[in-house]
Amino acid sequence: VTGGTANFLGSYSIPAVLNLTGGTLGASNGVFNVSGAMTWTGGAIQGNSPINVLGSLTMSGGGTKVLEGGPLVNLGTANWSGGLLEIYSPLVFSNAPSGTFNITSGLTLDGVSGSSALFANAGQLNVNPGSGNTATMALAFNNSGSVSNQSGTFTLEGGASSGGFGIAAGATLNLPSGTYNFLAGSSVGGAGNFSV
Questions:
Q1: Cβ neighbours of residue 149 under 8 Å, at least 6 residues apart?
Q2: Mean pLDDT over all residues of the chain?
Q3: Which end of the chain has less neighbouring CB within 10 Å, N or C?
Q4: How far apart are CA 170 and CA 68, in angstroms?
């Protein structure tokens, strides 16, 4: 999808490569499964269908990526290396228990139009923006899985964790504003910095 709109009404499965580069992908009234590779460099996702990415998800390039439908669920391996990611309230980007989500640059995931947009991590989240760079969750971030803060700064602005955070030497987990709740059973460890 490069500039137009593709609407899928009902349940669909896409076995081939799906490229969303600037248009709108609409999915409503069913379940939308992507079993091949999905590449998202720009454009928007709309509709009320859960979108399950079963293979790989690559989010790259400088274009803004807008989630106005879903939830969007990563069940494979997702790599985010470029562009602002906006999630409209009350939608959810979910990294499932089977999912691995890699952040490899100084990027921002932004909640838009209200305070109930959410990134939910139940799998493995690797934060590796590089020394001197910051990856920011400017929305609620709930963690029931594992977060590995491998380099740079990982900034959170709200949410809760029942899972684990590991902070590598030289890396920083930063809570500059808002409230983040560490629930019973959660943990924060490693040789890095924890800044409030």
A1: 127, 165, 166, 167, 168, 171, 172, 173, 190, 192
A2: 95
A3: C
A4: 36
- Residues 6 or more apart whose Cβ sits within 8 Å of residue 61: 41, 42, 82, 83
Side by side, which strands form the sheet with 56-59? Answer: 18-20, 38-40, 56-59, 77-80, 100-103, 124-127, 146-149, 164-167, 187-189
Calpha distance 8→13 (Å, rounded): 10
Give yes or no for residue 114 having a pLDDT over 80. no
Tokens 């800044």, residue? 195
Question: What confidence tens digit (pLDDT) does each residue in 53-76 have?
Answer: 999 999 999 999 999 988 999 999
**24 pLDDT higher than 80:** yes
- Asked if 123 and 101 count as a contact pair (C-beta separation under 8 A), the reply is yes
d(CA 95, CA 80): 13
Residue 33 CA to residue 52 CA, distance in Å, equals 5
Is the pTM of the predicted complex or chain greater than 0.70?
Answer: yes
